[in-house]
Amino acid sequence: MREITLSNGKTVEVECLSCALTSGEIEPDGCVIVETEYFHAHQDVAYPIKGLVILASKRHIKCLDELNDLEKVDYINLLSKIRKAQREVLGIEHVYYFYNEDTTHHFHTWMVPRYEWMYDFGRSVESVRPVLLHARNKLNNDENVKSVMDGIKALKKELYT
Questions:
Q1: pLDDT per position as a tens digit, 7-49
Q2: What is the distance between the alpha carbons of residues 70 and 47, in angstroms, rounded to a whole number?
Q3: Coil, helix or strand for 38?
Q4: Rounded CA gap, 69 and 122, in Å?
């Protein structure tokens, strides 16, 4: 079991955070953004950044090459649909995508938006970790959390219409 701190400050103990989220054992802040037969998208539970979406497979796998043909099609279609909604609904012009195979969770892709304030930390992939830590440590306030929740609602509305 691992202890994980969520963006709301709560800690949970789970074997696999992605399994706990996709199965409903843990409900992400703001609920599920969009869900298909094979994937589950939710606001990142550790970092309160509006539009930071995690797209996770429902099946416990670690690598992209483990996706079956139906999952591959669903993955790219859903990833594209979410990205379009981020741009059109939240005005997010740039996104960094991360997927790693040595994660303690199972297969998931981070869709990390880039806002103007983030450029104070740099303009490369190396700036993302300081941005995430800043969000966790400095943006856990009522005003920002409300903005994050509003973003989740707007994405859900767009993705389910």
A1: 667 777 877 777 777 777 777 666 789 999 999 999 887 899 9
A2: 30
A3: coil
A4: 38
